[in-house]
Specification:
InterPro entries: DUF5615. The protein has about 100 residues and is of the alpha/beta class. It has three helices and four strands; from the N terminus they run αβαβαββ.
Amino acid sequence: MGIDTIWSGDFTKDPGDEEILKIAYKEKRILITLDKDFGELTVFRKLPHCGIIRLVNLSSKEQSRLSAYVLKLHEKELLSGAIATVSINKLRLRLPDE
């Protein structure tokens, strides 16, 4: 599928959620996470972002498969600031300004 990724585990030290969100926004990257804190930073604190996919209770294999699926179907919405919450049987897409 040819997706350019950066793994935050490669950073020399943990920059924290806000800094990771800033880096993703600056580089126009969709953030994929297991952590609901990123959604809270963007929804309640209104920090800018280029889309977030939050994965809930998925195995590693399911995380990869469903991330690719959501990116394929909703890349445009995500890049415009949508937040997708994904579990094995459910996809919730929160569009910007919702």
